[in-house]
Amino acid sequence: AFRSSWERNGGRPKSRALSAIKRELVAELGSMASVVLLDEELGAPAITSELSSTVGLVMPLESQVYDSIGDGRATRLLEAFPPHRASAYGADGCKLLLPYRPDHIPSRGSQEATVAGVIAECTRAAMPLVLEPIVYRLPHESEDIFRSALPGLVAEAASRLAQLGPDVLKLQFPSGATNELSACRAIDDACAAVPWVLLGGGELPDVFADQLQIAGRAGASGFMVGRSVWEPALEPDAQLRRTRIRTICRDRLERLRAVAVASCAPLLTRR
Questions:
Q1: For labelling, which of 28, 52, 65, 250 has a CA lying 20 to 30 Å from the CA of 35?
Q2: Which CA distances in Å does 80 have to 76, 77, 86, 111, 120?
């Protein structure tokens, strides 16, 4: 997400520059978070130099590319970063992004097998798993058809994957639902005893704040957000970037924290 956002803003991403931005974001905003999601490739310097011992660390297990199974998608794991490697960084958990269509049978079975294998590895490494299923549009679907199907697909994905035993589900907002609160409650019911948090999905801050308030009323335990907070930091000029982090990015995160405190059930009270 960091690389693709930088490219959309007209930049040419370099690992050193992106790593520096992560360090600056963690240094300025890390203390405001319950957990910080950092990868090994670009986030290791921020982990070792900026991350407070009082803030949780979650590390991703998936590659930034995926494989294809017909029209469906399949997660490609980072072979060099299994769950036990996260322990060396003092991580508190791992995260797995999962392109997932519960109605696409060939890829569904493969993805569920991947999740089961990762959960087994995480259990051996004593690492909780945040599972992030992303429902995506199939090539033959129009945008309208996909949008109308999204709420039901998210709920079905939550229902199927919760049975595999992840520790937390990170889920999409059911945009397009006639009644978004009812759709979020259907998602909450589908999660059963597994707590869930709302993913940002790159939404504009005002939009995401409204979505978080609705999801919280339905039972969500919080949020995990990326671009909706840090995208203004993708600025080559170091001084301007640091100013944006201290002002725009901080303001965005403070507002979302306030919404979560007011609307969401604490994570540890779910089970």
A1: 65
A2: 12, 9, 11, 20, 17
